[in-house]
Design goal:
The strands form 4 sheets. A 5-stranded antiparallel beta sheet has the order 5-8-7-6-9. It has a 3-stranded antiparallel beta sheet with strand order 10-11-12, with no helix packed on it. A two-stranded antiparallel sheet has the order 1-2. The protein is 15% helix and 28% strand. The relative contact order is 0.11. It has 2 helices and 12 strands; from the N terminus they run αββββββββαββββ. By secondary structure, the chain is of the alpha+beta class. The longest helix has 28 residues.
């Protein structure tokens, strides 16, 4: 049986419990900086499925989703008309938002040219099973290019030099993408390089032969040359200076006349 004193104690404990809950709620609200704001959403386009690189975007490959407005950037697409018919320059994965950096308009040009960065060029070299690294080259690999030529009139020793380093492979033959891991012997390799590098490689092809060297994808180091290679421009060698005549003087007496002549190891002259 509850007595009057027990009832008063129970009622006091209940009041204290409510007060503690109220104080704790106020404290948590003050930590969060105020009342929780309701998150606002907007519509954006995402990939409904994986869109392979260099493929034109089709209606079945995109869908609209609700996206937090604070996370919507100016380059995202919000309507299907903005993206249909454009080209994915990189693989777009399912549920990834479509934006103007990954999906571009070819503008009537070659789709492959969209992959070439500004101030760079796509330059194709002819290779075989040896110069093409045994068929192990794939798009997005990086290579060094070595050049060789015969010195003199073609009878002297072979000179070799690494003329450019860390060059990206854009395509092998006519394939810009590849999911194959087996070696494939190709006839040509398209490389991404600056105009100056393309000139150096073209000159090396005309003067001799070139060889590609495959790099580790994590190795971006460029080896500095300690001295100019055989393909660098050399200053002309100075012409040999004429040697001063050396020898001794000889006195020749003919009757009552005497004359001096200077002799070198081969002849004498007055």
């Amino acid at each position: 049986m509850f007595t009057g004193r027990t009832f008063i104690l129970f009622l006091g404990a209940l009041i204290l419990a409510f007060a503690a809950v109220f104080i704790a709620q106020r404290w948590v609200t003050s930590l969060s900086g105020g009342p929780v704001m309701k998150l606002q959403y907007g519509k954006v386009l995402v990939a409904a499925q994986d869109i392979p690189q260099w493929q034109k975007v089709e209606p079945s490959q995109v869908r609209e989703v609700e996206w937090p407005k604070d996370a919507i950037t100016s380059d995202m697409f919000t309507e299907k008309a903005q993206v249909l018919g454009k080209i994915a320059i990189d693989t777009v994965f399912a549920d990834e938002p479509l934006n103007a950096r990954r999906v571009l308009d070819p503008k009537g040009g070659n789709v492959f040219s969209l992959r070439i960065p500004e101030y760079m060029r796509a330059f194709t070299v002819r290779v075989n099973d040896v110069s093409g690294v045994g068929g192990f080259l794939l798009p997005d690999n990086h290579v060094d290019i070595l050049a060789s030529r015969k010195s003199g009139s073609g009878q002297g020793p072979t000179q070799a030099e690494t003329i450019v380093q860390d060059i990206k492979v854009l395509a092998v033959d006519q394939e810009a993408t590849s999911d194959k891991n087996k070696p494939i012997v190709v006839r040509s390799v398209t490389l991404q390089m600056t105009p100056q590098q393309a000139e150096a490689v073209f000159k090396a092809e005309e003067e001799g032969s070139i060889q590609l060297a495959l790099r580790n994808p994590a190795d971006a180091a460029v080896v500095e040359k300690t001295q100019p290679g055989p393909f660098a421009a050399h200053a002309p060698e100075p012409a040999p200076r004429p040697m001063a005549s050396v020898g001794r003087s000889v006195t020749i007496i003919r009757g009552t006349l005497a004359s001096k002549v200077r002799c070198n190891p081969h002849e004498c002259s007055e």
